[in-house]
Amino acid sequence: MTNPTPASVSSEFAHHLRTALPYLARFRNSLVVVLMDGTLLDSPDSHALEDLALLSQSGLRMLIVLDCAPLVGVELTSHGESRLNEAEQLLPEQELLPKLERICAHAHSRLMMRLATSGTQILPVTGPFVQAERLSSAASGVETCNGKVREICAEQLAPILETGGPVLLPTLAHGEKGRLWWLEAEEVALEAAVRMRAQKLILLQSTVLHWQGDTSTQETKALTANEVRRGMAAHPDWPAVQQRRVLAMAQACERGVERAQWVDGTQDGSLLQELLTSEGAGWMVTDRDYQRVRSARLSDAAEILRILQPAFQQAAVVQRTAECVQQHIERFLVGCVDEEVVGCCELVDYGSEAVELAGLAVDEAHRNRGFGRLLVEAGVAQAMRQGRSRMFALTTGSAHVFQYCGFQPATPEQLPEAKRQDYDFQGSGVYLLQLR
């Protein structure tokens, strides 16, 4: 096994830093709501709390909802008690409230201590920032202390969040006449994310999400809210806790939260990887475009050259200099995952009728995910908007992509005269698409 050279280590570090910094800049002063599984407090290999503190120090405003239900369940079980219904929801009666208060207070104290001693000098805050009301009694008629969120105290939270420290929201909250109610953690997190207009809802869990729906999403691990609902309807036997949480992710997106993400907090670095890289480390639900094609910007030139470099070396595309790319940046389209450029193509005009789709390339880490097709389709759509009558492409290795998009094999004689004089066709296939 070859040991990495100092140059390769430096290059890898630089690549990771270049990937992460745009995300950090984008998230600065943004609000996220984190629903954290209480069992992570006892996970010896997890550095999720330290990573939360690091993100908070980096400028990410944060509301944290600690799910104490698993901790309550463990203690009740150890005493031979159970208050769970068939949906694995806690149904506490009045006499159980002192025990719930003690368990939740202890867990919150541990969480705050871990955050405060993480080495980042952040000061977490907690308080009665959630108001509750009574939830209808269970069908059994037994009176329980289950409540629902009546209000998230946004006016009180806003100035505290501006100070930069994370805020812990309770799942035991008071209602009218001072009565205490037990709230489902996912409901508190959902309502906080929606009512505080958070950018993200993050479910920091102690397990991997085993998606039961359409297997075609396994590669990207990105779902729409509609896909979540279809998957749940097709698999009613899915574990109840995961169903509630994934449904909360979908509801958050339907109600205006940009994204909801499920992260396995037991895997070291998974939270940072999910938030600061395009590949992520968990599952994401969104109602917006996650993968898209857009016009290139001058700031994309370096990434375009990086993506084209392997194709240059394999003689799959014509060599382009940095000056050439920068000078003609308006001709390029780029494929993006979030803000990361992962593919490109160039549209070159040949008169008012014909246009060439050239320089089609996708970063190796993102191949076989449909980006080539997205880029070709976007190029075709732009050419049609501009009134071009035909599009052509020369390729040594992407024929299947062009044929999938409707291009037909052609001959060099069918190309514009300027192109025939300008290019050596040896080894290249010619493909043509009539646009009108």
Give the helix proportion (percent range).
25-40%
- Please tell me the overall pLDDT: 85
Number of domains: 2
- Give the CATH H-level superfamily of the largest domain: Acetylglutamate kinase-like
- Summing up helix and strand content along with how strands pair, one would put the structural category as alpha/beta
Strand content: 15-25%
Low-confidence stretches: none
Any idea what the radius of gyration is?
27 Å
The largest sheet, given as strand count, sense and whether it forms a barrel, is: 8 strands, mixed
First and last CA, distance = 57 Å
What CATH calls the topology of the largest domain is Carbamate kinase
**CATH architecture group name of the largest domain:** 3-Layer(aba) Sandwich
Number of helices: 14
Query: What is the CATH top level name of the largest domain?
Result: Alpha Beta
From the spread of the alpha carbons, the general shape counts as elongated
Strand order in the sheet with the most strands:
3-6-2-1-9-11-12-10
The tally of strands reads 19
Summarize the structure.
By secondary structure, the chain is α/β, with parallel strands linked by helices.
Please explain how this structure is put together:
The chain is of the alpha/beta class and 436 residues long. It folds into two domains: 271 residues, Acetylglutamate kinase-like (Carbamate kinase), CATH 3.40.1160; 143 residues, Gcn5-related N-acetyltransferase (GNAT) (Aminopeptidase). The protein has 14 helices and 19 strands. Strands 3-6-2-1-9-11-12-10 form an eight-stranded mixed beta sheet, with helices on both faces. Helix 6 runs parallel beside helix 8. The longest helix has 22 residues. The N and C termini lie far apart (57 Å). The model has no long low-confidence stretch (mean pLDDT 85).
